[in-house]
Specification:
Its EC number is 2.7.9.1. Belongs to the PEP-utilizing enzyme family. It catalyses: pyruvate + phosphate + ATP = phosphoenolpyruvate + AMP + diphosphate + H(+). This is Pyruvate, phosphate dikinase. The structure is a single chain. This protein is α/β, with parallel strands linked by helices. The protein has 36 helices and 31 strands. It has an eight-stranded mixed beta sheet. The protein is elongated and about 105 Å long.
């Protein structure tokens, strides 16, 4: 086999020695996805396994990259394609597009990562006005030949020449209306011949040129169109949604045609080795007789279940079952397969590791362990934190009174409620206005991707588990019900008629259950998922009602917990949240925000503190706040007994505890006009003006408050120390850690620490209790990260506040920029994902890494954690593992996700070490 492990990038117009741009299917293998794309690599793998794959060749992603960079194919590409085409023609015993017995080929995209329906495919290349006659004669079926020709012109016109696809669809519908038939298979050869003439006229009118008759020109233009489709709008949108890099390029697969539209003994289908919705073993898929190419996944004609193939063509069915078993054992995973039967002969057109729902992913992973195909470490790599998060979504309350109006195919699970919309534009528009919507279509196509992303769920009246809607929804983790045939969807009138004649107009609320396929009128109440109940301890693995899913989650989580090095803490500010976090597996509190304790009934005390004119008044306010703060911490230490609790001293600007300046000004003005007493309001207004800042997030907050407001931080430290002493006296095990926020220089920390140490010593002496309270800081300013070595001299731990660190590194105000220009930045590809969602490794991440290394250089036993919400983001957790942090901290409901990803990160690191 010829290999191209490290291909050079060719310069346009130059032949680069050693670069190979085209591979025969016999030359590749499944490990060359970077070069051959997923489709080409797997076609090569199936060829190597001796499975029935039509002969063909793959143009590499490297050729695509050269084309995208220069606008022209590499100089050597045409000659390589010619050589491989000649070899293919010799193997098949016929030439591309010859008039008597033409060789026809398909040209299909194939990127490294599956992007279903997002890029272009053209079938039946090589047909022309002359060769269609030869195909009819060779096949002995004139209707088949003209049907293949009209398909070529339709696909080529839309994908290669840029003709509006609706023009072809309208002409096809008109032909069926004229013939008084409902499906295209009922059109006769003469009808299709007329349709070809109509399609050619459409091409001529829309492009100013005739449909190309030269078969090589057809192939070359199709190859270029596939390259171009990599940068098509829908492909770019899909890559952003799925976080697929934009610089990979696509391979192009040129494959000799086999025909599923040769009559009732032919057909095309899609099969799964296990149910992609549930993970259960069995016969899953769709089959369509007398059909070609995209007919199955397009949902235009309703398919039959794959199991029916046993009755239709038992020989092909038995062979397919054997091949499916071979592929699953070979890939050791759920396989998604496309096949065609040509007059009783089975051909394999594609296989790939299939997309699946979150529940199926966990079930399949544990099933494969039990079958001995993979080990626990590999099972952990087969699931993700994002999938676990999906399993924690609520489900519909089965006890609620509901009005079920239809039932379709359960394509992608979840409980989705929203207003009915009938096109992508409306779905996006309403969603951006804050509305929850359900996108309803007869069937979806790649142009609906915007709306599918915006919607809570997708409902179609056509198609099955292998339709476009189902495959894309599963990939996005979006609730989907397909093939609800009882529903009459009228997209032009923006309405849907349900059995019994009731009409659902656009804007009416409906509910869809992607786990059962049920469709309901109105809003159905939801209840917690069984996975959440398991994490909260209300459902136990091994119990009769636990179910396969809970058992699978339990097994994988147990392994993740055994493997992970990162500990997982919670962001929690009260005992209730702390107890919930502990049930979810938290190993302590990584961030207790004390400012949340100053709201509600205590706001008046804070106002008095801010308004204090004398030291005595300030001391009195602090004295009243002290016991309240102490009780907060007593409750926290009790809830988290034996586990660390990191308490951040007051952080936000003081003006946040005062009334809104506009509202207060109005109150003062009204009181003055009515000559009513308003001394307190006036003092408040003066204080608000005094504390008003143009940019408060960069103003008087954090450690600066502790230095400017005497006694504020010492009151909080005393409350923590006294609470810890009280808990210890009650035979508890409080493990408090005091965190100083917004430190930018070691001198700030030294001053606050000196005061804190003094207060802790006083409490120890007064209570006779030995208190070991660690004192550390948040690293949330670039200067703190850059001087971390100095700061570590006064800090026993660092906790990276990545929310603020992201703001200060980027110069972003999160509350403003996400609503103003982040959407444009994501659409333009400046961001692959918001830096507030997943850590910016190159910028913010570099500072985290730098600070971690510098801090430990000064203090080798320095404890390192992160307490921004990045701590619960799957991709960020892997980064924090690599950097060497000790723990991550996140909101309670993200704790299981962080635990899982911490385990996956450890296993991945082990795998890298072994390599």
């Amino acid at each position: 086999m010829s290999e191209n492990k490290d291909p050079q990038v060719a310069e346009h117009g130059k032949s680069v020695e050693g670069v190979k741009f085209v591979y025969d299917f016999t030359e590749g293998n499944k490990d060359l996805k970077d070069l051959l794309g997923g489709k080409g690599a797997n076609l090569a793998e199936m060829t190597n396994l001796g499975l029935p794959v039509p002969p063909g060749f793959t143009i590499t992603t490297e050729a695509c990259k050269v084309y995208l960079e220069s606008g022209e194919e590499p100089a050597a590409l045409r000659d390589e394609v010619s050589a491989h085409l000649e070899a293919l023609e010799a193997r098949m015993g016929k030439k591309l597009g010859q008039t008597d017995d033409p060789l026809l080929v398909s040209v299909r995209s194939g990127a490294k990562f599956s992007m279903p329906g997002m890029m272009d495919t053209v079938l039946n290349i090589g047909l022309s006005d002359k060769s269609v006659q030869g195909l009819a004669k060779q096949a002995g079926d004139e209707r088949f030949a003209w049907d293949s020709y009209r398909r070529l012109i339709q696909m080529f016109g839309k994908t290669v020449l840029g003709v509006d696809g609706e023009l072809f669809e309208d002409a096809l519908d008109k032909a069926k209306e004229t013939k008084k038939v409902t499906v295209d298979t009922e059109l006769a050869a003469a009808d299709l011949k007329k349709l070809v003439a109509t399609f050619k006229k459409i091409v001529k009118k829309e492009t100013g040129r005739d449909f190309p008759q030269d078969p090589r020109e057809q192939m070359d233009l199709a190859i270029r169109a596939v390259f171009d489709s990599w940068n098509g709008d829908r492909a770019k949108l899909y890559r952003r949604q799925e976080r697929i890099p934009h610089d990979l390029g696509t391979a192009v697969n040129v494959c000799s045609m086999v025909f599923g539209n040769l009559g009732p003994d032919s057909g095309t289908g899609v099969a799964f080795t296990r149910d992609p919705a549930s993970g259960h073993q069995g016969v899953y898929g769709d089959y369509l007789q007398n059909a070609q190419g995209e007919d199955v996944v397009a949902g235009i004609r309703n398919t039959v279940p794959l199991a029916d193939l046993e009755r239709i063509d038992k020989k092909s069915y038995d062979q397919l079952m054997q091949i499916m078993e071979t592929l699953e054992n070979h890939y050791k995973d759920l396989c998604d397969i496309e096949f065609t039967i040509e007059r009783g002969r089975l051909w394999m057109l594609q296989t790939r590791v299939g997309k699946r729902t979150a529940g199926a992913a966990f079930r399949i992973a544990t099933q494969l362990v039990d079958q001995g195909l993979i080990d626990e470490a590999e099972a952990l790599q087969r699931v993700t934190g994002a999938q676990l998060a999906q399993l924690m979504f609520p489900r519909f309350d089965e006890s609620a009174k509901v009005e079920q109006v239809a039932r379709g195919i359960a394509a992608s699970p979840g409980a989705a409620v929203g207003k009915a919309v009938f096109d992508s534009y409306t779905a996006v528009k309403w969603s951006r206005s804050g509305e929850k919507v359900i996108l309803i279509r007869r069937e979806t196509n790649p142009d609906d991707l915007d709306g599918m992303i915006a919607a809570e769920g997708i409902l179609t009246s056509r198609g099955g588990k292998t339709s476009h809607a189902a495959v894309v929804a599963r990939g996005m983790g979006k609730t989907c019900v397909c093939g609800a045939e009882e529903l009459e969807v009228d997209t032009k009138r923006r309405r849907m008629t349900v059995p019994g004649g009731h009409v659902v107009e656009e804007g009416d609320v409906i509910s869809i259950d992607g786990s059962t396929g049920k469709v309901y009128l109105g809003e159905v109440p939801v209840v917690p998922s069984p996975v959440v109940e398991y994490f909260e301890g209300r459902m136990h693995a091994g119990a009769e009602d636990a179910g396969e899913l809970v058992e699978a989650v339990h097994r994988i989580m147990a392994f993740a917990d055994r493997k992970r090095r990162l500990r997982v803490r919670a962001n929690a500010d009260n005992a209730e949240d702390a107890l919930r976090a502990r049930r979810f597996g938290a190993q302590g509190i990584g961030l207790c925000r004390t400012e949340h304790m100053f709201l509600g009934d205590r706001r008046e005390l804070v106002e008095r503190l801010i308004l204090a004119d004398t030291e005595a008044e300030r001391e009195e306010s602090l004295k009243e706040l002290l016991p309240l703060q102490k009780q907060d911490f007593v409750e926290l230490f009790e809830a988290m007994d034996g586990l660390p609790v990191t308490i951040r001293l007051l952080d936000p600007p003081l003006h946040e505890f005062l009334p809104d300046i506009t509202e207060l000004s109005v109150r003062v003005a009204l009181a003055e006009s009515r000559q009513e007493p308003h001394e307190n309001e006036l003092r408040l207004l003066q204080a608000v003006h005094r504390l008003h800042e143009q940019n408060p997030m960069l103003g008087l907050r954090g450690v600066r408050l502790g230095l400017v407001i005497p006694g504020l931080f010492t009151m909080q430290v005393r409350a923590i120390a006294e609470a810890a002493a009280e808990r210890k006296g009650a035979k508890g095990d409080p493990r408090a850690e005091i965190m100083i926020p917004l430190v930018g220089t070691v001198q700030e920390l030294e001053i606050v620490r000196e005061e804190a140490d003094k207060v802790i010593a006083e409490v120890q002496e007064a209570t006779g209790t030995d208190l070991k309270l660690a004192i550390g800081t948040m690293i949330e300013l670039p200067r703190a990260a850059l001087t971390a070595g100095q700061i570590a001299e006064a800090a026993e731990f660092f906790s990276f506040g990545t929310n603020d660190l992201t703001q200060t590194v980027w110069g972003f105000s999160r509350d403003d920029v996400e609503a103003s220009f982040f959407t444009a930045y994501l659409e333009k590809g400046i961001f692959g994902v918001s830096p507030f969602e997943t850590i910016d490794k190159d910028g913010v991440g570099s500072l985290v890494k730098l600070a971690a290394q510098a801090g430990r250089q000064t203090r080798p036993d320095l404890k390192l954690g992160v307490c921004g919400e990045h701590g619960g983001d799957p991709e960020s957790v892997h980064f924090f593992h690599e950097v060497g942090l000790d723990y991550v901290s996140c909101s309670p409901f993200r704790i299981p996700v962080a635990r899982l990803e911490a385990g996956r990160a450890a296993v991945q690191a082990e795998g890298s070490d072994h390599r």
